[in-house]
Design goal:
193 residues, mainly alpha, Arc Repressor Mutant, subunit A, 2 domains, 9 helices, elongated
């Protein structure tokens, strides 16, 4: 509850946000913040973790009806993922611009078989990929590539979109355009080039 109340304030003010502002937004006393968090930096770290977390967008992807046409499913997925990336980017830019870099500690140790530990970004990306694969799976027989390969292409296109409406090479693709390019390419008629 505290982090949810803090996120819009952190996005707006960065590290200049006060715990008093956060307490008012959460409808709690300021002392309650310090019962939940060691200090303001720990709260800001929790905001970073929440903004970068994928649980919310995974729930949105899971709610996309599988009986919709593939293009509709992927457009809804693109819209949810774009909104997630925008929310995350707003919070991260605000905190980084005002000097907060977050807790740099990473868990030590290895996974079974001596593999290096999997970081949070890898786990998050894998979870997003798996959720997109689930959206594509009902159309496996209609695709030239496996749902896993289509999901990789979809996420590659999505994550390579330039930020903002007018990036250095022009406007970003809309979710509808991105899905159209993924499913139909860029030729007006197949074999025309």
């Amino acid at each position: 509850m505290i982090v949810a109340a803090a996120l819009p304030l952190v996005a707006e003010h960065g590290t200049a946000v006060t715990t008093s502002q956060i307490a008012r937004a959460a409808g709690i006393g300021e002392a309650t913040i310090f019962r939940a968090f060691k200090d303001k930096d720990a709260l800001l770290d929790a905001c970073l973790a929440e903004a970068a977390g994928v649980e919310h967008v995974l729930r949105e992807l899971a709610s996309v009806p599988l009986d919709e046409p593939l293009a509709t499913r992927l457009t809804e997925a693109a819209e949810a993922l774009c909104a997630h990336l925008e929310r995350m980017g707003t919070v991260l830019r605000s905190l980084f611009a005002t000097g907060h870099r977050g807790d740099r500690a990473h868990p030590a140790g290895a996974r079974a078989g001596g593999e290096p530990p999997e970081d949070g970004r890898t786990r998050s990306f894998r979870a997003l990929r798996d959720a997109v694969v689930e959206l594509i799976e009902p159309d496996r027989e209609a695709l030239r590539l496996s749902p896993e390969r289509v999901a990789a292409a979809f996420l590659g296109l999505l994550f390579s979109r330039l930020p903002g409406p007018d990036g250095p090479t022009g406007p970003s693709l809309t979710p509808e355009e991105l899905v159209s390019v993924l499913l139909h390419g860029t030729l007006a008629a197949p074999g025309s080039a």
